[in-house]
From TrEMBL:
Region of the whole protein represented: 314 to 592 of 607
Domain of life: Bacteria
Domain (EAL) ranges: 23-277
Coiled coil: none
Identification of the protein by name: EAL domain-containing protein
Taxonomic placement: Bacteria, Pseudomonadati, Pseudomonadota, Gammaproteobacteria, Alteromonadales
Annotated source species: Corallincola platygyrae
Signal peptide: none
Amino acid sequence: AKDAGRGCFQFYSNEMNAKALQRLRMENELRKAIENQELRVLYQPKVDVEKREFIGVEALVRWENPERGMVSPAEFIPLAEESGLIIDIDHWVLKTACAQAVEWQQTLGIEIPVAVNVSALNFKQDDLVEQIQKALSMTGLPPSQLELEMTESVVMRDVEENTVRLNKLKAMGASISVDDFGTGYSSLSYLKRLPIDQVKIDRSFVRDIEESAEDRAIVNAIIAMATSLKLDVLAEGVETDEQTRLLKQAGCQRLQGFLYARPMPAEEAAALLKAGFNK
Ligand code: C2E
Ligand code: CA
Ligand code: CA
Ligand code: CA
């Protein structure tokens, strides 16, 4: 029995080593991904279903590795967060997205705000404002055309400190969205104090809005609260007409999801924006 126990331990520890090794390998490859130009940015349009127009695009990163194929951010963002690589990745996405928005404006006459995701680690950097300022001045994008998405858990963690931080970003002229809203049990009084422009209702609530009365209640409460605080509210992950109907009925007209547009390469997004909203 003793031997078996040891064998078992041996087995697990080998497995753990293999996992650790695999992570290490992936981290090293990710490190090279930026210089090897393996990162891509896809753009997912956001719509206003009442005004029937596109109101923005969200930049979403992808890793196209020759051996691994297309790696989803769900797989490498956590690793990038732990290793600190996320800072370089976010900066690269920011510059790329800003440059793209300027190009759309100059070559197609399309003026559309672009949103980038700011990771927890990046949000805490002392030079965050400076980095964003740099990306804006380098590309010539007006700050009013840049939206920063930060998750609720990040924004609500250190409200005092974050208020100062967010005020600096606001003073610069960018707008602030709270991502994955509803998952973090925010205090409403904090929400009122923070200088934010929009909340994005998390996809997990939208997904079950048709079947679950609880999720419907949560979504309705978020919309009512955001509206009374004069915040914009957007629902993410909209996949069906019925979800759209329920969200519109509750007072949410800003939507994002596969029903309207998937994340797509810049050229495709440009063609769609040019054609205009017609669903
Ligand atoms: P997120 O910011 O909440 O982005 C929304 C995610 O939902 C995206 O996944 C998007 O492709 C997906 N999505 C959009 N509409 C639908 C829909 O109708 N149905 C379904 N099932 N999914 C939908 P993606 O691109 O895989 O990104 C996952 C997460 O990775 C993002 O969640 C964000 O937290 C993070 N991420 C992506 N790009 C970046 C980046 O450049 N920097 C940082 N820091 N994080 C990023
Ligand atoms: Ca987001
Ligand atoms: Ca989200
Ligand atoms: Ca999410």
